[in-house]
Recover the amino acids of this structure.
């Protein structure tokens, strides 16, 4: 049980890491983190250990009582998201392009946008940060398998690899507990965060 997983949030309630129950209890005891329950209430070590564990199956034994296992903790002094490689995913491409068609400039919901290879794959274009942009469906149809210039179109902004920090590099299969779900949009998560294969 001590090696099972706990979701770690920064002070903005953004998921940044997954740790073990053992490490989570150390952080709680040292005052570096607080437990977050499903009502978004926070508890320090003492107030968490004072809660009744009788109705919960995930508990560990202390010398004099049982304590509920926390599944989400909030760091008390950490605002940043750790720097890591920006995942080449639909979510991050749409984020980079601000949900805007890179040909006509219309800002649209994701459901009305798709991904377009600036240099089509049929003409040797690669699937990479530097060759994939968001495009509305009419512009994508108009461009087809042509280069933008061949279709009489131009890019608003040429695609580049972003340098900002990603939200979090965690896959859907790692969302193991119901207590974690409020911190992720489960419906969209796997589709938008699936890493695309760069060529």
């Amino acid at each position: 049980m001590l090696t099972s997983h706990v979701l770690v949030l920064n002070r903005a309630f953004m998921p940044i890491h997954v740790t073990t129950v053992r490490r989570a209890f150390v952080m709680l005891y040292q005052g570096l983190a607080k437990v977050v329950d499903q009502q978004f209430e926070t508890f320090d070590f003492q107030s968490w250990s004072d809660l009744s564990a009788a109705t919960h199956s995930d508990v560990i034994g202390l010398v004099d009582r049982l304590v509920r296992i926390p599944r989400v903790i909030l760091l008390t002094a950490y605002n940043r998201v750790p720097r890591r490689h920006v995942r080449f995913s639909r979510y991050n491409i749409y984020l980079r392009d601000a949900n805007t068609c890179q040909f006509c400039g219309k800002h649209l919901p994701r459901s009305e946008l798709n991904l377009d290879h600036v240099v089509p794959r049929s003409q040797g274009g690669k699937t990479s940060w530097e060759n994939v942009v968001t495009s509305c469906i009419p512009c994508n149809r108009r461009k087809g398998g042509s280069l933008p210039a061949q279709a009489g179109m131009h890019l608003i902004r040429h695609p580049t690899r972003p340098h900002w920090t990603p939200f979090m590099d965690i896959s859907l299969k790692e969302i193991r507990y119901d207590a974690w779900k409020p911190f992720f949009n489960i419906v969209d998560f796997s589709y938008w965060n699936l890493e695309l294969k760069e060529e």
